[in-house]
């Protein structure tokens, strides 16, 4: 059952408490074609609530997932650091958890096969489940078996019938994209073999709050999870969270490990109890903790605009790097368009010649930066700042500098 207007995604409790209100924004992956730049765009409220019953932070489902993923522009393989992260994960699962050729691995939201390709190279049977047509096609072209489906309870029954239960299910940055979290998790329980386990990675709400990562909020993300909340959600469906790891990816993520509640081979580790206790100590069981976040977001908007106004008043040129979803939230909330940002660049050729949703900033290949020699490069995917600063370190040849927006606006040489 999809979310009802004004009701919690998880417990169906009425939503009345604001986490932060980011105004209105178009879909962050709805890039504008040149012939449509003078046409109107659909915009939707980006008002984030927190449920005062179960404490799930969430955005209303204003747009159906089918519409969001009909023609998707995010390809995981365009980030070198993310590919290394995927390869390291495969090595870990095989070396530490014994995943091998006699196991069946399923990735939910498998994108372009960026991760499953490494399991396949090592002879492990795999299956990707990916709802976006163009992205799934890219995976199939790499010979990664992929089902173009939205995952949920009904889909899981079909997959178990057509294939078999999975020994390892993984999902990277997918939980936030699920509008019906209970249907999704009930499907996972069906899909998982008796002694199998699952891992899910997602940005940690604690990092979002402490590092002011409000730009990671957009319509494609319906939920924002603390460990406290995600533990309750899986427990509700007879699944046990037995281990958690902190990761540096996406500005600070966690990887959770889950198995069937009845699986005594995997007891709950101290990592889980320690993080749950840490969240409680920091206030994540107190509704007032959540409602204080909005003022912090407003302050960052004012500081960023102040910086941009000062630079432009002094005749400086500013170009962007990247066209990520988080960048579109940031630009639209702060009101930064072509009056501040001359253009942005991206490694994904599918975005070249397009315009960012809302702000209509044009997107070019990365070589545009060397060609125009801007005074400042505004790094929109700030979670990849080290990788990007290395890639375009040549801007220092003409005295160029970098601007990082999060957690607070900062200029780096």
From TrEMBL:
<dbReference type="Pfam" id="PF08421">
    <property type="entry name" value="Methyltransf_13"/>
</dbReference>
<dbReference type="Pfam" id="PF13489">
    <property type="entry name" value="Methyltransf_23"/>
</dbReference>
<keyword id="KW-0489">Methyltransferase</keyword>
<dbReference type="GO" id="GO:0008168">
    <property type="term" value="F:methyltransferase activity"/>
</dbReference>
<keyword id="KW-0808">Transferase</keyword>
<dbReference type="InterPro" id="IPR013691">
    <property type="entry name" value="MeTrfase_14"/>
</dbReference>
<dbReference type="Pfam" id="PF08484">
    <property type="entry name" value="Methyltransf_14"/>
</dbReference>
<dbReference type="InterPro" id="IPR013630">
    <property type="entry name" value="Methyltransf_Zn-bd_dom_put"/>
</dbReference>
<protein>
    <submittedName>
        <fullName>SAM-dependent methyltransferase</fullName>
    </submittedName>
</protein>
<feature type="domain" description="Methyltransferase putative zinc binding">
    <location>
        <begin position="8"/>
        <end position="69"/>
    </location>
</feature>
<dbReference type="GO" id="GO:0032259">
    <property type="term" value="P:methylation"/>
</dbReference>
<feature type="domain" description="C-methyltransferase">
    <location>
        <begin position="249"/>
        <end position="407"/>
    </location>
</feature>
<dbReference type="InterPro" id="IPR029063">
    <property type="entry name" value="SAM-dependent_MTases_sf"/>
</dbReference>
<dbReference type="InterPro" id="IPR038576">
    <property type="entry name" value="Methyltransf_Zn-bd_dom_put_sf"/>
</dbReference>
